[in-house]
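hi support,

uploading two proteins for the ticket. first:
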Amino acid sequence: MTEQMRTSTRDLEQLRDQLTAWLRGRVGRDASVSGLSRPTSNGMSSETLFFTAAWDEQRTRCVARLAPAAESVPVFPSYDVRAQFDVMRLAREIAGIPAPRTLWLEPDPGPLGTPFFVMECAEGEVPPDVMPYTFGGWLCDAAPEDQRRLQDASVGIVAALHQAPFTSRELSVIGTGGLRAHVEAQQAYYQWAHGKRRIPLLERAFGWLESHWPEDPGPDVLCWGDARIGNLMFQDFTPVAVLDWEMAALGPRELDLSWMIFLHRFFQDLTVSAGFPGMPGFMRRDDVCQKYRELTGYQPRDMDFYEMYAALRHGIIMARVWQRRIHFGEQPDPADPDDLVLHRATIEQLLSR
């Protein structure tokens, strides 16, 4: 992702009036909403709004996450705001990780035209997607020891989530677990995202997974799902907020670890192809797995399989994003459908191993 994806064209003034009316119904007639804005980087699956909510003697900076409207050609087939709200609360209260404090859940589409939830706004720095942090900036230019401190702390977030003592009842908000169910859900997502238009590269990757299936995927844990540093907020290279929980799932630990490793590789490969060095020593597989083992006592396994799976999952998402851009006239339709996958060369390299 090298430019911000459009997620909404709705008028901010109208949204402010609607939010104000909704908030007054929640906390009282004196409530007000001010400073309404949209983010300028990161995030592509839903609409995000920043605003200040005031009532009585309180004044709180808030973030609202809105389920995407159908006319926006959403990236994902569903957006369960209740599950995200519940998982963030559990992650904060039971795993002890700094997920933002949840404030209000609104499942009724009436007030804003779509379901949404509101959480407290955290303050800090986020490694950007646009332009990718590997091209330069505060993280790329940091001292190697600070980069490593951030890397280890990010792995620590994943480790703490995986080790937390959730009950089966608490995890029921996520649904079915297991690697097989996870892959089948991705196959269904691929069919939904692309319909009758086949992408041979991605179908080859699905076939590769079947030929290299792990003998023992291991026990399921609560996985963050979109476990990457672009969904973390930092102060002094220490995580202060864990964001974006719409991909949370029950599955093997390696789902999160491989996603964190591969998403850095995705940006690193883009950077190298543009002629810049990037951050080649950052988020290396051996380093990430070693730190995870130190924190949990668990040795990650079958990482070739999970790296391919991460590349495939991201390929489905990126192809959907690119087709979305085509729909809105933001880029031409390529003659070769494999070119819808921005990291086509990486997947081809993984397939050739």
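and the second one:
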Amino acid sequence: MAFIDSAPDVSIHYEELGEGFPVVFVHGWAMSGRVWAFQRELAERFRLVMPDLRGHGKSTAPAEGYAFADFAADLVALFDRLGIRRGGVVGWSFGVQVALEAYPALAGRLSALVLVGGTPKFTASEEWSFGLPATEARGLALRLRRGYDRTMGEFFRGMFAEGELTREANQRIAHEIVIPRLLPDPGAVAATLDTLAGGDHRAMLGGVRTPALVIHGGRDAICPPGAGRFLAERIGGARLEIFDGAGHAPFLSDPARFNRLVGEFLGEVALSD
């Protein structure tokens, strides 16, 4: 079991597999590094680092400190402590915005960005139609207070589009990811949800110069597909892959395609950089 201390009161747990070009996988809100279980096969070609964000998984849940800047500082500390001088980041959902927040500090060390099911701005506004209404986040926070375990289960199931998962895929996800996972600290989840609802990283996208691959589910009900297209359009040279029929977690519902695309992209970057 591996940890790094990223702040006086914060220890970040991470799992490390494989050798070669290092790639840090950053999970989404209310999840943990275990959500990348189906991507472990990539360790045959790359050095995979899968941390738990603060307040999630086995990482420390401090009483405060859940701004995007705090999560980004943890990611930078992980790069520093593991001696990653040239590598990639795969971010999913909330992890996309954590990666974007950390980008200015890591840009000189990043050779690849993979942004999965992400958005630069979670909450819709008058000039941003690719988000969810602010009432969605407030309603979710209320449901969490009333029934934490039940609401977390409902949120996870809501990541998948109707008919997206076969019976076999559903059983595999349940046995390898859902059942063994540790539910995050309720206070951390609530604070992180507030951060997610208030974040806006649109203005910094034009400054991203790192080769990027954007992957999005065509039926994503949590981060609408338009948000993924916006990311790809605003990041110069970014590639866009839409998984038709997939919801918010295409790396779980179609891991074979996801791993192939990500492996090919990372391989190209590692060879050319």
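thanks. also noticed: The longest helix spans residues 255-272.
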